[in-house]
Write a structure and sequence with these properties.
CATH superfamily: Alpha/Beta hydrolase fold, catalytic domain
Structural class: alpha/beta
Protein name: Alpha/beta fold hydrolase
CATH architecture: 3-Layer(aba) Sandwich
CATH topology: Rossmann fold
Number of helices: 8
Pfam families: Abhydrolase_6
Helix content: 25-40%
Organism: Deinococcus radiopugnans ATCC 19172
Oligomer: single chain
Keywords: Hydrolase
Largest sheet: 8 strands, mixed
GO molecular function, one term: hydrolase activity
CATH class: Alpha Beta
Number of domains: 1
Strand order of the largest sheet: 1-2-4-3-5-6-7-8
Strand content: 15-25%
Distance between the termini: 43 Å
Length: 258
């Protein structure tokens, strides 16, 4: 059933998908390739849905990847109530299992999330209970890796109100990826914008240092990458995931993109 305002709109170049979640259906889009290809699962930020990641999804698909972009719990296309990524590992686990079973998907996929989606991606890759081998790499763009630090430093009052309304007492710690950094068992790439005033770049830097993960900084990027910055990020992600060790200590952004 399609419910205007609640269902994801059709796209001319992608297939809408729906799969069973713990509290109802999880919806999104898949961009398929005709044969075997590397794969990526994309997760959006707070206030968005699967459509918001169509830009980077198309960049990856145009480069020959199978791509799945999913709405997180409580956002358009997916049932349930938003809990700011706390249920992410359970829901993303279902997404990964479904995706890995699709024709032509070279499992395990890369898991890439923006903002809250980056939080969900890192929690999925590091919290106990993740099936071994379900993810090859994780990429977190402008991710709130330490909820308390983000709350204290952000200039966005709306974000503070969101945290006050949504986060449980336990979630401030257990829902922060930095709490579980020692459980991270796959290569991770942190992407930050030095002009980000929503999720300050030092929060991402601190997580990268704690994880021993590479850090990609964009000097002119705020919280949300523009088209040119997404191009640079996706280009770097594709190169990084093909490296034998995927572990350079620091990555330099393309100066032409900011």
């Amino acid at each position: 059933m399609t419910i205007p305002g609640l269902s994801l709109p059709p796209l001319p170049d992608a297939e809408r998908v729906s799969l069973a979640g713990a509290v109802g259906e999880l919806g999104g889009y898949i961009w398929r390739q005709p044969g075997q290809a590397p794969a990526a699962l994309l997760l959006h930020g707070w206030g968005q849905d699967a459509l918001a990641m169509a830009g980077p999804a198309r960049l990856l698909h145009g480069a020959g990847w199978q791509v799945l972009s999913m709405s997180q719990r409580g956002w358009r296309g997916s049932a349930g109530c938003d809990d700011y990524g706390y249920s992410g590992p359970a829901d993303v686990g279902r997404m990964l299992a479904w995706f890995a079973a699709q024709p032509g998907v070279q499992a395990p996929p890369v898991l890439l999330g923006f903002s809250m989606g980056g939080l969900s991606a890192l929690l999925t890759a590091s919290r106990p209970g993740r099936p071994a081998g379900s993810v090859s790499h994780v990429v977190a763009v402008s991710a709130p890796t330490d909820l308390q630090a983000v709350y204290e430093r952000t200039t966005l009052r709306l974000l503070r109100r969101c945290y006050d309304a949504v986060l449980t007492a336990a979630q401030w710690r257990e829902g922060s990826p930095v709490t579980h950094v020692s459980g991270l068992q796959v290569p991770a790439l942190l992407v930050v914008g030095t002009q980000d005033r929503i999720c300050m770049p030092e929060v991402g830097r601190q997580y990268a240092a704690a994880a021993g993960a590479p850090l990609l900084e964009h000097a002119d990027m705020g919280h949300s990458p523009n088209d040119a910055q997404w191009h640079a990020i996706i280009r770097e992600v594709m190169a990084w995931t093909q490296e034998p060790a995927s572990g350079r200590s620091r990555l330099a952004p393309d100066p032409s993109t900011g």
